[in-house]
Amino acid sequence: xxxxxxxxxxxxxxxxxxxxxxxxxxxxxxxxxxxxxxxxxxxxxxxxxxxxxxxxxxxxxxxxxxxxxxxxxxxxxxxxxxxxxxxxxxxxxxx
Length: 95
What we know:
The protein has helices at residues 3-11, 39-45, 72-82; strands spanning 12-15, 19-24, 50-52, 62-68. With 95 residues, the chain is α+β, with helices and mostly antiparallel strands. The protein has a 4-stranded antiparallel sheet.
């Protein structure tokens, strides 16, 4: 099993033809990591093209929404970038 397959198997919260929601652990970058250890790059190397819908820092854990290549939602995310809009979501647990 590849690194991506192992990571993915343990953190999928929701999946359909257009979107993938992961429970991203702290310490794992979504994209842009210099050492080839970010989620988007690991997925791509395993043959899965994903497009992040929002930002979540490497040190932050939480739900991460990704568009799946070929899904209807992928085009929508590209439109957000073109319009320079930044969709965001936050989830918190207050104790």
